[in-house]
Design goal:
This protein is α+β, with helices and mostly antiparallel strands. The protein is 28% helix and 29% strand. The protein has a single domain, classed as Alpha-Beta Plaits (2-Layer Sandwich), CATH 3.30.70. The chain is built from four helices and five strands; from the N terminus they run βαααββαββ. The chain has a five-stranded antiparallel β-sheet.
Length: 159
């Protein structure tokens, strides 16, 4: 953990929205991931587009992008942001996992880590929702920030 204080608390420990009025506008980018583990037959059904609900990967990507744009509505102290780019990719990892990567970008006064994390999470949740009828044992795991650039704290890459 860095030596910084918790920015969403005032000096008396009360929750507050961080004032970013005087912060410099910079290019900011964040990439997060989520992993969805499933049965091999579930992954094959998704890959081969044999799901009765259609192209579940396309639906999940759209859900992730939409979620990034609505993060401020979901997380109480997040700022509404004018995202300039959101990318969600879903790749196979072996026969029993999908890795979701979400990248969010903007020029602004606050970071986009929460937007990237929300996009990755909602993409995984959408895949779970669409496939739960055939595989209730799916597990969403390893939701984490992989990298962020811009702002006062600079560049971070997950070790």
């Amino acid at each position: 953990m860095s030596g910084d204080s918790l920015t969403h608390l005032d000096d008396q420990g009360r929750a507050r929205m961080v004032d970013v009025t005087d912060k410099a506008t910079t290019q900011r980018t964040a990439t997060a991931q989520a992993r969805l583990r499933m049965q091999p037959q579930t992954q094959a059904m998704i890959r081969d587009q044999r799901h009765p609900k259609g192209d579940v990967l396309a639906t999940a990507r759209i859900a992730g992008i939409q979620a990034a744009k609505k993060t401020w509505d979901l997380i109480p102290l997040c700022h509404p942001l004018m995202l300039t780019g959101v990318t969600v990719t879903i790749e196979e990892e072996g026969e029993t996992a999908l890795r979701i990567l979400a990248t969010c970008k903007l020029k602004g006064t606050t970071g986009v880590e929460m937007e990237a994390l929300t996009a990755a999470s909602v993409t995984a949740l959408t895949l779970y929702d669409m496939c739960k009828a055939v595989d209730r044992g799916m597990v969403i795991e390893e939701v984490c920030l992989l990298e962020k650039e811009g702002g006062r704290s600079g560049h971070y890459v997950r070790p």
